[in-house]
Amino acid sequence: SVAVNISPLQLLERSFVDTVRGVLKSTGLSPHLLELEITESTVQTHVQARETLAQLHELGVRIAIDDFGTGYSSLASLKDLPIDRVKTDRVFVTDMLASERDMALLGNIIEMAHVLGCSVVAEGVEELAHKEKLQSLNCDCLQGYYFSAPLEAAGIPEFARAAAQR
What we know:
By secondary structure, the protein is of the alpha/beta class. Helices cover 51% and strands 17% of the residues. It has 9 helices and 6 strands.
């Protein structure tokens, strides 16, 4: 799959859905393999953004909320929008080992997202203890320097080969 960050301005463009449809057609990428990442605040203030997300979801494109938990309307976002995945903000992972409150909050975010049918990605995994604790909380996917630093496109094939051999 391919995940792409989308700006608020892109979601407000009336032609954005047609652009995505055209890219899917020209590349042959199946819509369910495209995940568009948006921030919480993007959809809280713009009705057009919500309509665009609904149209994209109808195409089969997956929608993820990035940096979840840093905005003001997290619960409403999950309840009212066609969200497939929640990516928790790294601050929760960074502080979870030292703070029982952060650990409890992160566990509740994961549980709530699952109840609403969303998978969860924890960003900011930097050490084995983070990985183990998040796995015990049933987090679906982990992301961070523990696994790899950000890669240029040219480095992805080698990373994938090495990961497949582990």
